[in-house]
Predict the structure.
Amino acid sequence: MLFKTYLPSEKELPLLDEDHILGFDEIEVSKEDTKCKLAEKWIPKTVVDSELQVNENDTQIHIKGREFAYTIDKRTALFTEMKFAGREYLNHPMELNIWRAPTDNDMYIKSEWKKAHYDKAYTRSYTTEVVQGKHGVKITSHASVVAETVQKILDVTITWKIEAAGKIDADIAVTKDDEFPDLPRFGVRMFLDKKLSAVRYFGMGPQESYCDKHQAASHGLYRADVGDLHEDYIRPQENGSHYDCEYVELNNSRYGIVASAEKAFSFNASYYTQEELEKKTHNYELIESDSVVFCVDYALNGIGSNSCGPVVLEQYRFDDVLFRFQFTLIPYVKDNKVSCNP
C-alpha cells in the first residue's frame, strides 16, 4: 500500500494558483492489499454455463460462444478477429511487438536494433494444439519472432485460454537469442475500434512514464482521452507509455475492453502507429491511424541513453533472455459488465 505526501504552495504565487503541488513522495506503508481491486472485479465469480463451438481449418481457429466470436490465425498464433456482442474490436490483426519509434536518446542504439532487423520483425507459428474443455478452450502454439536475412530472434510459446464468457487469458513464454542486442520492447499490439477513445488505468500517471522516467509520476486511478495520452514532441518519437500498471480499460458509452495482469505492465494507447512516428520528422506531419493503437507491454528498454551521456543503466536495460508475459483481456458491453466503480 502506497501513502502519498504532498507539498502544496501555501499562497498564490505568480503564474501558480494556491495549493499548486510543488512536490510529492510515495511511501510504501504495507505490502498487503496492494493489488488494484478494479482488476479483480473483472474476474467472473461464476462460470457461464455455455458450450463453446471450436472449428479449425488449415489456417484458422474459430471460437464461438454465446456473446462472442474470435478467430486466431494458425500462421501467427494471434487474433485476427475479436467480436463481442456483435461488435468487431480489431481493425487489423494482433501482433507481437518488439519495436518502438526511436527516441532522440536512441540515436546510437537504434543502429544496432536496425542491424538486427527489429523494425522488420514478424511472428511465425509452427505448431498449434487445441484442447477443449467443458467451460473453455486452451490453444497452445510454438512460434517465433523472425526477420528476413537474420537468425530467429525469439522462440515463443503462446497459450490462449478462452472462457465461455469471452475472457481471454494470455501466457507468452519467450526465449531470446542472446547474440541479439537488448530489445526495444516486448508486448502485444492491437488495432482497436477508434470509438474506444476513453481510457481509465491504474498505474503511474498522469504524464508518460517509463522504467527510468517516472519520478514526476505517481500511482493512481487516472482517466484520459486517447488523444490526451500523446506527448506532442516536435520530432515524433516513442511517447505516451504508462509504467507499472495493473489495469487499463478502453471504452465508449456502450462497450469496451479491459487488460489486467497480476504482474504490473506498461501500456500505450495512441492514434499514431510506431511506424508513423518514426517516418515523420515534424509533429505537424503526423497522420492518425484508422485505429486506437493499443500496446500492452511486458517491458520497454529504458529511455535514457548515450546520445548525450552514459548508456542506459543496467537496471533499466531490457536484456532478459528468458521471460514470461501473462495478462488477461476482457471485452464487454455496458449492460453486462462487472461494476468497477472505485
User: Anything to note?
Assistant: Residues 337-342 have pLDDT under 50 and may be disordered. The radius of gyration is 21 Å. Residues 187 and 297 are 4 Å apart (CA to CA).
